[in-house]
Amino acid sequence: MTTVTTNTRADYAAFLLRVTMGVFFLVHAGLKIFVFTPAGTVGFFASLGVPGWFAYPVILLEVVGGIALVLGYYGRWLALPLAADLFGAIVLVHGKAGFFFTNPKGGWEYLALWIVGLIAVFLLGDGAFALKREERRQS
After folding, report:
1. The CA-based dihedral angle spanning residues 112, 35, 15, 133, taken in that order and rounded to the nearest 10 degrees
2. What is the pTM of this model?
3. What is the mean pLDDT of residues 7-31?
């Protein structure tokens, strides 16, 4: 038995959004790994009053979540924890800098938009070209 999937414009939109979110997370995690270094990220977390070791699961979430989004392999299910990750960044870092991301120390505007995009990925599903695509049910 062969299953044929016909993609709609919404499926292609979900694909574009999913891959974009995934690439952004891989770049974001890369910044923590290659620029700030894991040790530097641990120190930054500690300076915020968060246990420093918590940097490691956050980096792992961002790498695994980014890959899952790019590949479309349970990406929609990792979109929500990734949104929570960004919400934490708003609460702990960017919220006090105001709304606009161009403010000194960067506001929360960009992160809020990123969260909305991740919620949209969750609601839309993985879309076209996903390695693991859930079949949609008609409601």
Report:
1. -100
2. 0.90
3. 96
